Amino acid sequence: MVQTELPLEETEVKGKRKRGRPGRPPSAAKKPRKSPGDKGRLEAGARGASRGRANGHPQQNGEGDPVTLFEVVKLGKSAMQSVVDDWIESYKQDRDIALLDLINFFIQCSGCRGTVRIEMFRNMQNAEIIRKMTEEFDEDSGDYPLTMPGPQWKKFRSNFCEFIGVLIRQCQYSIIYDEYMMDTVISLLTGLSDSQVRAFRHTSTLAAMKLMTALVNVALNLSIHQDNTQRQYEAERNKMIGKRANERLELLLQKRKELQENQDEIENMMNSIFKGIFVHRYRDAIAEIRAVCIEEIGVWMKMYSDAFLNDSYLKYVGWTLHDRQGEVRLKCLKALQSLYTNRELFPKLELFTNRFKDRIVSMTLDKEYDVAVEAIRLVTLILHGSEEALSNEDCENVYHLVYSAHRPVAVAAGEFLHKKLFSRHDPQAEEALAKRRGRNSPNGNLIRMLVLFFLESELHEHAAYLVDSLWESSQELLKDWECMTELLLEEPVQGEEAMSDRQESALIELMVCTIRQAAEAHPPVGRGTGKRVLTAKERKTQIDDRNKLTEHFIIALPMLLSKYSADAEKVANLLQIPQYFDLEIYSTGRMEKHLDALLKQIKFVVEKHVESDVLEACSKTYSILCSEEYTIQNRVDIAHSQLIDEFVDRFNHSVEDLLQEGEEADDDDIYNVLSTLKRLTSFHNAHDLTKWDLFSNCYRLLRTGIEHGAMPEQIVVQALQCSHYSILWQLVKITEGSPSKYYNDYGDIIKETLSKTRQIDKIQCAKTLILSLQQLFNELVQEQGPNLDRTSAHVSGIKELARRFALTFGLDQIKTREAVATLHKDGIEFAFKYQNQKGQDYPPPNLAFLEVLSEFSSKLLRQDKKTVHSYLEKFLTEQMMERREDVWLPLISYRNSLVTGGEDDRMSVNSGSSSSKASSVRNKKGRPPLHKKRVEDESLEGSWLNRNENIHTPGTLQAPQLTSTVLRENTRQMGEQIQEHESEQGSEQDFLHNPQMQISWLGQQKLEDLNRKDRTGMNYMKGRTGVRHAVRGLMEDDAEPIFEDVMMSSRGQLEDMNEEFEDTMVIDLPPSRNRRERAELRPDFFDSAAIIEDDSGFGMPMF
């Protein structure tokens, strides 16, 4: 074969890229190539060491620099192209040693400790080498580089894939055609992909798929070269005979032949990988392996669509849409999205769309939200490419998802809805039509369609969800408030239908929801996890939108209220709008006359309606407009007072009339009292009306009803409610006027209550104390925000209260041991309850609470501090432990409070007040010997560990007895020692060994530590039981059977499927020893449960 000699640096084929032609099967007359198996052995002896290797062993220089390919790629410090260029130079010098480096690279990337030596490479077949490497695996760990956690190993995966791509790119002009390197690599990867060891299968499959992707790119470049050469040849041949250059024609013919031979070589390599690895591994039992295969076949179909975008390859993606693992289904959808994005490819996807459209539409309801979102996006792309591809039923299945509580699903469905119903197909024509009709906006018809969609969905209480779903895709439409008010206020022009009353109500409801979304800039309640911090751009958009809606509705709202003042539902919705205003605009924009118009309309509404929703909306609007921070407060307050004066006067007269009439009162008298009382009660809820003394007349009504029993029930209810509000407002005044008098009057009662609760249940008392501190902390955060000033008086006040609470535990740490530990546990959980929305580099919002919690650290026993510190570390990441900024000082301070206390980790558990009985006994008896004291300490610590105590309330249910032999021995020893020192322990002895108590939280922590030590010891004693056990030790812990097919198909259906494989490209490689031996390794690693439902595609031809 004639090879094109080009420099290594040349990596791209010049000229315009295109998809090229489908590869044709290799010519029958072509000289047969040597098989990868024949190249799998070395025919020459060792020729010395290269690249830091000696007899196949990796070596390092004196400075410890990485010298193996695996180490270089793992560190990723060198540019990948220079690494590959170094390997190519090594290959040119000694290709056997260089290939040995490459083989060991794949072995080590799989996590194998073994190294392939030259004698093994020379004398063993690939199957034997792989079997030997299997024995070198560490059976105690199932992790390998591709599955190890941490940023270093994530980077390794990308470096690994990049290395393979650069290797083929740099070798594409010469080395890959030498019938040696590629045959050896493909043969090795094929053998590894058949291994039962997951690490080998996963790593080799990823390598093979990336190798295939690189080869597809080479094939595409060759196709472009062939097309260019053919055009040059035809152009030269069509010249006149006198101007035709025969030598150039011969060169072009020779080049075309050479390119065709190279194309055939590449096709053979791709066929070997596809049929030898892909068709087996896309059905692997491991989801990650299946996902790798599907992801890469999508890349091939997009990159070289003329060769791969056909039914022979698309069927694999279609079948895998039924995979039981969401990760694999997600890869299928994303692979298809990349294809449907290109509208030029739709003709080639037509048959696939018809076959699998129903499955794709059904995946919009997938139990995995990520899969459902991508399925909706794929359906949107199909709709964008061809509206006829989806039926009305298909579209309706997606429509209702705009009401989903999961926001990403709803937003994706909103984009579909926008594409289908609310996108303007001909903007210029629609704008011209709107101008002819005298409309300012061309969105009138689209808004009408939105109203109709909302009404037909029959989910009227979910208008906010519909608006939120469409917010990202249809903002221009949803923020067209001028068009909405135009439709509501103006009469329909010629060619337009008048909106019905139901449609007007729906439009007002939707309009109010759009105003709320624009002003608050966050999803409605039930969508999302809470308010997130807005970016600078989002904040600017929010301010602009709020100014825009305020300027518009300051003028439009009084007119809307005037038109719909008689409709309670519409008015109640419209009166929600002022709460989203920027009220400063009334003053800065000189719009006080519009404020007067609004107040006038609100007064009319109050006089017309007695419905509670309307009256509460009016009361709330007055409350917002009366805010003291705005200059309009005086104007609004005057109007409000005048309104209340009028209704109070009317109420007083009507009450007098009613009481005078007595039993002869008619319905008009009752209605007058009831209607005015309803209005005043609604206002009294949000406004302090005590100066009008409504309580007196309400009391008269209630007393009359009690004495005579003739008062209507509705009046009684309203009078009670109004009296209730009057009392509450009076209490507010009293509380605000003398906040400190209660401590002097009730301080002793509070102290006594604390003492009694501590006697009843120490642990519940401790939990109550920490809960009260948490509530104070939450209130402070709500007032000042998450960034608390730790030096402020408020924070110092909470810390001072915590210090006083700590003093209530006294000096006897044994009696309060469990209570204090439980308090610390609850405090730690509260501090780390929420994560910072900005990321893990920022402290949790409640982290400052640890500074309050540190006030209780002095009440912990020394050994308990260790336990609490260990519990704290469960919530910490490595980054948290290394941070030293000011915002992390509470954590640093709290950790220091748990690790300080002296050199000796032991502490006498008899520590207490100097006047305690135990101390008196010890003083009388004298100091015990040192060794006896140590035994006493250990026994009591173990006794506390094993005692049964409920961390909540001493209950009636008995906890199961502990069965650990270690604990039983300790319990027995502890019992003997405690009996020996019974006279020294006093009442603590009974508390420590109360048989009615259940195991404590501290005991659970100690048990976990002991169990971990036991498991570590048992694992350490395990010996290797042979190579077979070592292999099984690394297998996936899946519960499903291993040697079954993931496609859930019968034997006959599998045969049908295998027949369908024959319409793919044919491998032009003769059978080799290595390929024959592959069948002797292990059966395929298939799993019958890996792909779910709908196996209809396997019993009949798909296309």
From TrEMBL:
Arranged from A to Z, the UniProt key words for this protein are: Cell cycle, Cell division, Chromosome, Chromosome partition, Coiled coil, Nucleus
Q: One GO CC term of this entry?
A: cohesin complex
Q: Where is the composition biased (Basic residues)?
A: 922-933
Q: Where is this region: Disordered?
A: 1-66, 902-941
Q: Where is the composition biased (Basic and acidic residues)?
A: 35-44
Coiled-coil annotated residue ranges, if any: 242-272
Transmembrane domains' residue ranges:
none
Q: Which GO terms describe its biological process?
A: cell division; chromosome segregation; sister chromatid cohesion
Q: What is this protein called?
A: Cohesin subunit SA
Organism listed in the record: Anser brachyrhynchus
